[in-house]
Design goal:
Blueprint lengths: L2 E7 L3 H12 L4 E7 L2 H9 L12 E4 L8 H9 L9 E5 L4 H9 L4 E4 L4 H18 L6
Length: 142
């Protein structure tokens, strides 16, 4: 069975826990990495000790409000890199600001989803993300 590699860029431990719980209830197999700030996200891809090919996820869940480098900065850097720009990046954030939505799409986010407040809705949102991006969409292979 194919294993999907997911990178979660999220500093909120409770959100990481809920995302992980939702993914673990899936019938799909995952290799999941979590980084909690913008610098760690850049290091994940660009540290010389890491092979870029080794660290290419099938898709990325990105919160906008992370320390060190914002989600916008991470989005812009990844989408401007020739080897990484095809990776689907789903902005999964608490912001409802239309300016954040527009800025995300201007920087080539593949989807913008506001995090639901209620736990059950949050889990359902992750299940729908998984259903679309990992069950129905054809993802680029690294």
């Amino acid at each position: 069975m194919f294993s999907f590699k997911i990178l979660i860029i999220e500093d909120n431990k409770a959100d990481v826990f809920m995302i992980t719980e939702a993914l673990e209830s899936s019938s799909l197999t995952y290799d999941q990495d979590v980084v909690t700030d913008g610098q760690a996200a850049l290091d994940y891809f660009f540290l010389k000790a890491n092979s870029l090919k080794k660290n290419v996820p099938d898709f990325i869940l990105l919160d906008l409000n992370i320390p060190k480098y914002s989600g916008f900065e991470i989005l812009k850097i990844l989408k401007s890199n020739h080897e990484l720009k095809a990776i689907p990046i789903i902005v999964f954030t608490g912001s409802v600001a239309q300016t954040d939505v527009q800025k995300s799409y201007r920087n080539y986010a593949n989807r913008y989803i506001q995090k639901p407040d209620e736990a059950q809705d949050f889990i359902e949102a992750i299940a729908k993300i998984e259903g679309f991006w990992l069950k129905f969409a054809n993802l680029p292979k690294s």
